[in-house]
Amino acid sequence: MIRVLLVDDQPLIRSGFRALLDLEDDIEVVAEAGDGQEGLALARELLPDVALVDIRMPVVDGIETTRRIAADPVLAGVHVVILTNYGLDEYVFEALRAGAAGFLVKDIVPEDLLHSVRVAARGDALLAPSITRRLINRYVAQPLDPGPRTGLEELTNREREAVALVAHGLSNDQIADRMVISPMTAKTHINRAMTKLHARDRAQLVVLAYESGLVTPRHA
């Protein structure tokens, strides 16, 4: 059973998502919160698999909520998915940097919402290649100050190659084709790189690849 926490200051949004999710045999909404502070308390109490978190809320917003969840070892198994009305804006980008597994626009069709919750619960990448490329474009358009990163030197050559291909927006199957390996081996390289770089997910790998200088943005 996938246990979901809803964190949004709009009761109508929460009730709509709950009604949809609770119809599924393998998904259960365990609690709702109206702001990030309440959401954090419930996350620590209930340890959900997935937290759907609105990016703009009173008291504690979605970015700070994500940052605190990512920094808390007790909540290592909680996968944050950001909810937004605006698509991939600067706030979403900051949330991805803070540790969110991905994001959903609130007008998402029901089938995509259910799929995204299941993907996030598995710990798999929630960002499709097209979204990864948009993330890259956002980084190129408004680059953040790069900081020193540790762990990059621990990557093997193959792991570096896999991370670079992730940063260019390739899927696991495409990475496997490019590296002439099996998709399972490609996934293993990516997972090991995530562990060494302390990245929670694919989104953070993309950011780390650019901030560390492993990959240089290619201006069209």
Automatic annotation (TrEMBL):
Asked whether the keyword Phosphoprotein is assigned, the reply is yes
A Pfam family for this UniProt protein? Response_reg
Which top-rank group of organisms is this from? Bacteria
- The Response regulatory domain covers which part of the protein? 3-121
The alphabetized list of GO BP terms reads: phosphorelay signal transduction system; regulation of DNA-templated transcription
Tell me where in this chain the HTH luxR-type domain is found. Answer: 148-213
Q: What is the designated name of this protein?
A: Response regulator transcription factor
The beginning of the lineage is: Bacteria, Bacillati, Actinomycetota, Actinomycetes, Kitasatosporales
